[in-house]
Amino acid sequence: MNKTFLIIQREFLTRVRKKTFIISTLLFPLLYLGLIFGTSYIGANSSTRLKIAVVDSSGKFTSAKIAEANETGKSNVLTLVKDDPKKLSENFETQGYDGYVVIPANIMVDKTPGNISVKSNRTLGAIPEVQSKLNNIWNDIKYEELGIDMQKRETLTGSRLNVSAENLKDKNSNGTFAMIIGYAAGFLVYFILLIYGSQVMMGVMEEKTNRIAEVMVSSVKPFQLMLGKIVGIALVALTQFLLWIAFVFIIFNVSKAAVVEANPAMGEMVQSAQKVFTSVNMGLLLTLFAFYFLSGFFFYSSIYAAVGSAVNEDVREAQSLSFPITLIIIFAIFMLTIAMKDPTSPVAVWTSIIPFTSPIVMMARVAYGVPGTVPYWQLALSMILLVASFLFMVWFAGKIYRTGILMYGKKPTWKEMIKWALRK
Predict the structure, then answer these.
(1) CA-wise closest residue to 199 among 333, 341, 72, 322
(2) Could you tell me which of 48, 174, 53 has the C-alpha nearest to residue 102?
(3) Which of 16, 178, 193, 220 is close enough to 368 for a disulfide, judged by CB 3.0 to 4.6 Å?
C-alpha cells in the first residue's frame, strides 16, 4: 500500500506541476468569462431589426393595430403600406424593407386562413416572431368581429388546462428540473470520462516510450502500479474540476449584477438556475455525483490504461483500440436520453445498474428522486457492482499491463490482450 501511495503522489505532483495543467486550469475561467460577456456583447450589438411591409387587401389590418403589435416585440417592425403587391415585389428593398407580406382579400374569421408567406430575397430566421405579431393582430380582429369584449377575452385567455406530472411516491419531484439536472450531470460525467480517461492512456504510453515503466514494474506489482496511476490522475482531474467550480462560482457571483443589467434575459436564466438548485436534494445529488464520477473514472481509466500499455508510441494504434471504449460511452449517452423520458422503464433501470453505463445513466435517474423514482436497492446494487467492477477491471487491466508494457514493435489485438490477462 505504501508503494501505491508513492505512485499516487508521483502521478499527482508530476501532473499538477506541468504547464499544461496550469494553463488549462486558468484557461477555462477565462473562456467562461468570454462566454458570458462575449455573448452579451454580441447579442446587444449584432441584433438586426427586420422591417416588414404589410399590404392588407382585406381592409382588416389597421395602422393602429399594427402600431400596438409593434410594441410587443422589437426584433421586427411591421409597416402598413398601400402599394400594389406586384409593384412592391420589385422595389421593396429600395424602399428600405427586408421583406413584405400580403394579407389576402378573402381572409375571414369563420374560415381557416390559408398559408401567408413573408416574401424576401434573404433567408430570415426571425419569421416566427413576425408570425406571432401578425397572429396577435388577427386575434384582435377575430374578437371584434365575434363580439367578444375585453373581459371575455381575458377569461378565454386565462382559462386553460395546466397539466403537470406528479410522482405519488415523491411529491417534491419535479420532472422539468430533474431533466435539466440529469442532463447536466450525465453529460459532465461523459466529458470527464472521455477527456481524463484518454489522459490515462496517453500517460501510460509516454512511460512505456521512455522505458520508465520497465523500472517500476520490477519494483511494484502491476495491480499497485495500475491503481496508483489511476488514483493519481483521478485526483488531478478532481483538483482541476474543483478549481473550475470555485472559479465559476466566484465569477458568477461577482459578474451576476453586471450581466443581468446588460442582458435581462440572462437574469431570468439566473433565477431559473437558482430555482432548479433549490428544488432538489443537492447534498445527496452532489454525493452521488462524486461517487459515480470517481467510480466511473476508475472503471474506464483502467481499460484505457490497459490499451495504453499494449500499444507503442503510435497514436493511431491507440485510437483504433480505444474506439470500442468510446463507443460504449457514447452508447451510455443514448441510454441517458431514454432514461430522461422515463426513468422507471426497464431499459433505464438496467442500464443504470450495469457498470458500463451506470455512471452516466444513474445520474439522470437520481435527479428525479430517491427513493421515489430510484429505490434504495437499485441504487445500492448499482454502486456495489460499479465498485466491484472497478476492482476487477484494475486487476484485469493490471495483468494486460504486466505483459503489454514490456512489448514493443507489435500491434496487439483485443484477443491477444485477453490472453495476456488470463495467463497465470
Answers:
(1) 322
(2) 53
(3) 178
